[in-house]
Amino acid sequence: MGDKDFLKMLLGGFVRELPDQIESLKVAVAGTDAVALTKQAHKLKGAAANLSAYGVSSAAKSLEEIGRSQNMDEANQTLEMLLHESKRLTEYIERAEW
Fold first, then answer.
1. Which long-range contacts (CB under 8 A, 24 or more apart) does 92-95 make?
2. How deeply is 89 buried, as exposed, middle or buried, from its count of CB atoms within 10 A (0-12, 13-18, 19+)?
3. How much is the pTM?
4. Contact 42, 64 (CB under 8 A)
5. 7 to each of 4, 15, 17, 31, 41, how far by Cα in Å?
């Protein structure tokens, strides 16, 4: 397997799992579950950073910080930012010419 194939496999797996991870974050935000939000956002932040998906990682980091602070006032707005960044990443990967 070449480098491009390996990268395509990694990014494909990340993008396939992204909707479930986002759904977990939505549930945590809706239930004002700061502990779950912190854990899920931390997991997503690391995975995205490992793939240089910095927009997703940055939004996840912001959600993690919101969870740690237990002040959920900006959680919905930050979740929307994560959704936007996730969409941008997914569209970019789909358009990539491998």
1. 93/11, 93/12, 93/15
2. buried
3. 0.92
4. yes
5. 5, 12, 15, 36, 23
Q: How far apart are the first and last CA of the chain?
A: 13
Query: Hey, what amino acid is at 51?
Result: L
Distance CA 82, CA 62 (A): 9
- Burial label for 90, CB within 10 Å (0-12, 13-18, 19+), is middle
CB 50 within 8 A of CB 10: no
Rounded Cα distance between 31 and 17, Å, is: 22
Residues 1-14 pLDDT 10s: 788 889 889 999 99
DSSP string, 39-87: HHHHHHHHHHHHTT-HHHHHHHHHHHHHHHHT-GGGHHHHHHHHHHHHH
Three-state DSSP state, 97: coil
